[in-house]
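Subgroup meeting minutes
Present: P.N., E.W., G.H.
Scribe: E.W.

1. P.N. recapped why we're keeping a running log of single-chain structure predictions: easier to compare across weeks, and new members can see raw inputs and outputs side by side.
2. G.H. added today's entry (337 aa).
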Amino acid sequence: MTLRILTLLIVLTNVNADAAVKDPKAKLTAVKGLDWLAAEQHRQGYWEANGGQYRVAMTALSGNAMLCEGSTTTRGKYARNIALAVDYLVECSQPNGLIGYRNDYHYTYGHGFSMLFLSQVFGEEEDARRREKLKDVLTRAVHFCGEAQTPDGGWGYVSAKDGNNFDEGSTCVTQLQGLRACRNAGIPVPKEIVDRGIDYIRKCTAPDGGVQYSIRGGGSRAPITAAAVACMFSSGEYENDLVQKFLKYCDKNIRSAKANSEFFGHWHYTHFYYSQVMYRQPEEEWESYSRDIFREIIRRQTANGSWKDGHIGPVYVTAINATILLMDNGFLPIYQR
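Output recorded in log:
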């Protein structure tokens, strides 16, 4: 009997070990990318895209990728980098709650990604003073989100007031996922803000199940639809009719062999969100999807560890690719199954 129990324990240990290292090459590739990001961080704590653009968004995305590796502000290989990023974003917080600057181009992206990143840090923060500061920043950030929402329930590249009530799908999803991350971390988020945002996405849904560019039309967009599913999953919605429509559209327009093996417009943005969706599917589906995506990402990494695809710049692509490769680490609550 003792021998049988011992044998069972050995088997279970081996199974768990295999699960923890499903694709060691993917993890090594991701760390190589994170090492490149760490070297590219400015001493003030920020990262930036081509031309010095999108500092807030790039800092949040890069810090988020390092959290996926398992580091925190106090522990791990990238602890110093994450702490510097947090300090930079906290300093960017304005009295009205905006994380960023009104003269920045498309500042709502940075705001939404910062809510996501800082809320993940807040949930694990051990330093009492830093935790209180993060709580204040995130509470005001949620308030700004409510004030920036348009009458139709969406968000644009800037707040409703600054953008004459213009709104569109991708920024809407960024705000909603950031809001959900805040709520999960214990920050109060008014339910009506989220409900109106989800209703906006519903109104953007075309007959084919894809999410259009905006409530005014613009045709179904695979990247925005993938982001919308991830957003719904983050909110705990897995089975409703809207989610099922989105999943069918994504299965047809993203999961095809052509879509997986060839780059298309906003490929990285698409799979940044779609990987979050597929990770929550049954294990065999995630393994099938990740095998193809990991292979493509690994193949395109440059010798210095970065990726240079797209026009936004290597910081953006490297942060996103590293996040995808580290998705099944399961360290961040917003991405967990």
